[in-house]
Here is the input.
Amino acid sequence: MKTKIINYPDLIEARNRQKSDTIFLDASTAHLKEMEELGKGKKYYIHTYGCQANVRDEETMRGMLESVNFTKTEDPSEADVIIINTCAVRENAEDKVYGEIGNLKKYRRINKKLVLGICGCMVEQPEILQILQDKFPEVNLYFGTHEIDQLLDLIYETYNSDIRLISIKSKQGEVIENKLVKRNNEYKAFVNIIYGCNKFCTYCIVPYTRGKERSRKFNEIMDEVRELKKANYQEITFLGQNVNAYGKDLNEGYDFADILEEAAKMGIPRIRFTTSHPWDFSSKMIEIIAKYDNIMKCIHLPVQSGNDEVLKLMGRRYTREHYLNLVKEMREKIPGLSLSTDIIVGFPNETEEQFKDTLSLVDIVKYESAFTFIYSPRRGTPAAKIDDNVSYADKSRRFKELVKHLEVNIEKDAKSYVGGTYKVLVDGASKTDKDMLSGYTESNKLVHFKGDESLIGKIVNVKINESHTYSLLGELVNE
Ligand code: 5AD
Ligand code: SF4
Here is the structure.
């Protein structure tokens, strides 16, 4: 099979991007008519790994495919188009993808016309893309995070030829408005406000794979929120690698606090956002979060490490003191605040003392929830070039110790709910017990309780009777 390369990724190009203006485009498909014919009676299968940005990308791809008559299947053996939407943030995410492609490749032998596509952050890395091509000659389409909107044309070309198509560009200054979206959920929605990241933390591959910071126009975002309100959505989550940076690349005069306030005024019952970098979290944002009842009092504030030297090596742009002062201001001004974080253990050459600083910070902040990771070298990032003297066994032990520290407060926090009644947005049947429903409190605690499936998508009152580390057990309170 011949390979046709439209664009090929380049990490150096991704790194050395210029401060160019953001270009705004509307999505369009050249072969729309042909794809409408092609899609009739055909099925697609998409599997997404990784963060909410990928989940939202999947929703766009679903919207595009269903607009040209494809229908969804959960069974890849009956699919005409298979797409694996990948994540590159850590090695274990990539390993799962290799495993899955290994399982799926046989379908290309069975169905010669099958489009087997790999997209997302993994393929944005030239070396990984090469490994994929060498390992899986069956894959006939690769496209990047910046080519999602060309999906239908890429499928058209792949389907109608006997080539492997690669379209992954590393110059990324565009915001493409794509109204086609098939949301995974009818009452909770993700709303992108800013794409990409300019922070270049030294361990992180995201600024290379997702490109420079580009904000969507204020009015486009608000139109989307208005539509969601009209469709009776109960919860929206504003998405960005760093939502705090919203608007800095535009001359519109709006910042993230303005986004929150305008959306709050529209009356969506629950407004959330993720992620916030501690470096540019403004006091104005804190005030707006405190002011509106429908902005959830939940802030995801990744700290990564509690030690100043490690923070510096990570390129995080703040000190332990700055972070703790910010937390203090938040806790003072936002009653009932629930703080969550991301922490990496085992950054290259992290000493036992430096790790202890992370433990002590965790004990001071008392997070209500946390995501913890063992450092995973990402080729092309500055941290991956550092010789590391910490053994994996030590990293693993530190990881367990950290989780133990975090769980002390997480359990204590969970216990404080017992006896109280809380508003819960009902998600569906509980994963562990089909007779139970599950949902989340405003503070993002998972709750299980008995109830009728007609409550799914509604906000109900639940009295909490029992707490576990990561969930609560309660009963429905009838008003
Ligand atoms: N190794 C381990 N964890 C990482 N993260 C990002 N890059 C790496 C890496 N190379 C974590 C950070 C980030 C979260 C999304 O993933 O904690 O906040
Ligand atoms: Fe990665 Fe840092 Fe950007 Fe977060 S802020 S996406 S950790 S570079």
In short: The mean pLDDT is 94. The chain has three domains: 2-12+20-27+34-167, 193-415, 421-476. The radius of gyration is 23 Å. The CA atoms of residues 379 and 385 lie 8 Å apart.
